[in-house]
Amino acid sequence: MEKFTTHTGIGVPLRQSNVDTDQIIPAVYLKRITRTGFEDALFSAWRKDPAFILNQAPFNAGSVLVAGPDFGTGSSREHAVWALKDYGFKTVLSSRFADIFRGNSGKQGLLAAEVAQDDIELIWKTLENAPGTEVTVDLVSKTVICGNLVAPFTIDDYTRWRLLEGLDDIGLTLKHEEDITAYEATRPAFKPKTLPAKLS
Amino acid sequence: MANTLAEKVWDAHVVRKGDGDGANAQPDLLYIDLHLVHEVTSPQAFEGLRLAGRTLRRPDLTIATEDHNTPTLDIDKPIADLTSRTQIQTLRNNCAEFGVRLHSLGDAEQGIVHVVGPQLGLTQPGMTVVCGDSHTSTHGAFGALAMGIGTSEVEHVMATQTLSLKPFKTMAINVEGTLKPGVTAKDIILAVIAKIGTGGGQGYVLEYRGSAIRALSMEARMTICNMSIEAGARAGLVAPDETTYAYMKGRPHAPEGADWDAAVQYWNTLRSDDDAVFDAEVDLDADTLEPFVTWGTNPGQGVSLSDKVPSPNDFGDENAKAAAERALQYMGLEAGTRMKDIRVDTVFLGSCTNSRIEDLRAAADVIRGREKDPKVRMLVVPGSARVRLEAEAEGLDRVFKDFGAEWRFAGCSMCLGMNPDQLEPGERCASTSNRNFEGRQGKGGRTHLVSPVVAAATAVRGTLSSPSDLDPAPESAALQTTDAA
User: Fold this and answer.
1) Which one in B56, B317, B402, B418 has a CA-CA gap of 20 to 30 Å to B482?
2) pTM score, two decimals?
3) Number of H helices, E strands in chain B
């Protein structure tokens, strides 16, 4: 995973709450077996509308998505994060993220920064009044800068550390392989196994 | 110290305690007892293992099934959609390569992953269960800690059989009282979501408690836990009891003999201590609950079936108001319309929420001896091939076919637009599934979430209806005539 310290890019105001993962990427695109190449799938239903924000310059070149509360609800599809990244987004700001989406973002190096709704409103106004305004999201100091506004954001410490270091989760866990083996030796005999298969 | 059920299950699975405070503090590492796999969220995870030269640690704690992409007609023919066919074939290749048990289309144990696990007896109380699917919360009905995960985590579980998990908060959902006839588990969970909102459960594990929950069957508890994610929760669970054990006993992978006794002894400890403190509590009155139905485009936008479509002005919060405006426009509804005046084109009975044998029985009981509204099409999609066989043995397929419904093969079907079963733009559907998101059931499709009995009654009348809205069935009408004579 690439390290994330700070990012500055054009902010995109998405004035909508409950942006679920079916909107971020409809199920029809989940048939692919690759991990990249999902840029065309991002918000594909909404992008058919010429008035949609990502169809407007300069927002189409945006890399900081500023969304309403409850972003990423619904399905666990990590494809939602891949699609945002493939399109060019480096970070999403919202006052509330769905848990699975937030987790998936952390695994993929997309920064999900929790910003108070009052600050989101101020950022929306700035971005709408002056399209193309750049937003800086600094993970080191956990602050968002947009125009005159300097606002704090929250992210859990562990995810922040992994993003800053660009660390691979599986590699970290396998350092504790002995602990896993030790735990396995203590599992009760009645716990089920899928193999050998027993059928009805 | 007094603990909640969720905390007990968590504590029993800690492989390694977190490193405590500090910027790089690692969260608890938890052991995973059962990993369920399907074709959509696994290909990139298997590929990740291959690229890193890693093995799948515990194939004997892993099981795969084909469900999201699979057609529900002509299942003996090659899948027509080439990308779907490729994804299914990729799962087959991966399972063969990594030694994972797979139930393919056509197999008697194939079906929706969340129907298959419990049915085989693989889902048991006190387990940790994960799957690359948000509706993994279903398995919480057994008192398991069951969570949906993303593909990176799928790969992590494959490689290590563990997950690093952030601590959660606990919320008690107390449902006391007795449900009225025609009111079901689906109505309970839709009412809970409408009450706490789609983000209300965020960061929480919900424990459903109270006399109304204790009175529910396992199928009904699965329906409730299934939709915990729709309230934003990490998971949802119900403490195991005699109902749970009766359901489990004799299933293929349920413990036997001395193992069963040891298991039950342990399972009996799996309940929240009397003095355990929840971080939040929500109460719901079962006595006054009515059939519940959604009017909008997220599962929190619901009302009683006897109610009206709300007006955006009913919402104080600006975001909720804007969301309501947008939802009404998408749904093609006007504020103030009686929910029961809304006409539907399609009725879908299926999905991991409501496709188990009991759901099919309940719907069949409503329609038996009645005629379907000829303008409505109805799809009945059993959750698994096993459920389909069971239903056919009971003659339920005949009830549905005589009624004019389509009797399909098992799969996720019309719950999500990944297989041929989809809504047309503007088509309106009463659906027993779990999400009414824009385009979820097909581009431009309009979804109203309902219970199986409301779905059945709606198919009779053509408008959103509860069984109590129906005239007596011809059979019972005849009986009444005889009585009068």
Assistant:
1) B402
2) 0.95
3) 16, 19
